[in-house]
């Protein structure tokens, strides 16, 4: 009898793999946007649980595209990059909030507080400000990543009338860098999906028999 049929069908079709890869990329982007868009944020424990569930689902989807070890690594990379992108995008949202509703005020630095030293971690500086015009206290402390200002220094800052966002100088309240960073991190997450799909395609091609046919009739 003739043993050959037109191929063993060991793996999913190319069309299926492309559709699954595109769907997985959309899923990664949708989850990241959803976590970012949650109003008021979520408790840290709940965020960890949701990101963990996302990682498991993502690993299962990626397992359909490529080897298990590659899928697990890419899922971990995508979750970490997406979470970091959400954090950076949150900073950009604060900058945009100040740009939209903040008022520009001349202030004087009246007190400075340094974060406690923690190994090699940089010590942030927090400044208490008061309005130069009437001496009123500005709500919230302005924070910088280094010791930039001395007590008595006069500055121009953007102040949130609602006191939700910390005051920042106009130079600090520029969301361009944060938005570019968040976009770059999401590109890394999506690239992880593409890497798994590429590895899976290569492995499938390597395992596919070459040459024409399965042979003639059995003797």
Shape: elongated
Order of the strands making up the biggest sheet: 3-2-1-4
Write down the oligomeric state. single chain
The percentage helix is 40-55%
Strand percentage? 5-15%
The number of E-state strands comes to: 4
Number of helices: 4
Kindly report the average pLDDT value.
83
Label the structural class.
alpha+beta
The major pleated sheet works out as: 4 strands, antiparallel
What is the distance, rounded to the nearest whole angstrom, between the alpha carbons of the first and last residues? Answer: 9 Å
Gyration radius (Cα, Å) is 27 Å
Succession of helices and strands? HHHEEEEH
Q: Show unreliable segments.
A: 1-9, 209-219
Output the keywords.
219 residues; alpha+beta; elongated; 4 helices; 13% strand; 4 strands; disordered C terminus
Would you summarize the structure shown here?
By secondary structure, the protein is α+β, with helices and mostly antiparallel strands.
Give the helices and strands, then pairings.
Elements: H1 14-37, H2 44-63, H3 68-101, E1 103-114, E2 125-131, E3 142-144, E4 154-159, H4 176-207
Antiparallel strand pairs: 1-2, 1-4, 2-3
Helix pairs in contact: 1-2, 1-3, 1-4, 2-3, 3-4
Account of the protein in words:
The chain is an alpha+beta fold. It is built from four helices and four strands; from the N terminus they run H-H-H-E-E-E-E-H. It has helices at residues 14-37, 44-63, 68-101, 176-207, and strands at residues 103-114, 125-131, 142-144, 154-159. It has a four-stranded antiparallel beta sheet with strand order 3-2-1-4, with helices on one face. Helix 1 runs antiparallel to helix 2. It is elongated and about 70 Å long. The model is unreliable at 1-9 and 209-219 (pLDDT under 50).
């Amino acid at each position: 009898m003739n043993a050959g049929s037109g191929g063993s069908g060991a793996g999913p079709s190319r069309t299926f793999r492309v559709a699954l890869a595109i769907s997985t990329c959309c899923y990664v982007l949708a989850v990241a946007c959803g976590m970012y868009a949650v109003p008021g944020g979520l408790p840290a424990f709940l965020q960890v649980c949701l990101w963990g569930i996302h990682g498991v689902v993502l690993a299962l989807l990626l397992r359909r595209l490529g080897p298990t070890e590659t899928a697990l690594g890419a899922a971990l990379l995508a979750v970490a990059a997406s979470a970091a992108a959400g954090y950076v995008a949150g900073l950009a949202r604060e900058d945009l909030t100040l740009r939209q509703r903040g008022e520009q005020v001349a202030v004087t630095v009246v007190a400075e507080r340094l974060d406690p030293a923690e190994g090699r971690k940089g010590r942030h500086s927090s400044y208490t400000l008061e309005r130069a015009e009437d001496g009123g206290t500005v709500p919230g402390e302005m924070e910088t990543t280094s010791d930039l200002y001395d007590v008595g220094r006069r500055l121009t800052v953007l102040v949130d009338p609602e006191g939700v966002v910390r005051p920042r100088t106009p130079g600090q309240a520029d969301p361009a860098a944060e938005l570019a960073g968040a976009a770059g991190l999401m590109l890394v997450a999506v690239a992880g999906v593409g890497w798994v799909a590429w590895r899976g395609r290569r492995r499938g091609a390597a395992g596919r028999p070459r040459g024409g046919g399965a042979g003639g009739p059995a003797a």
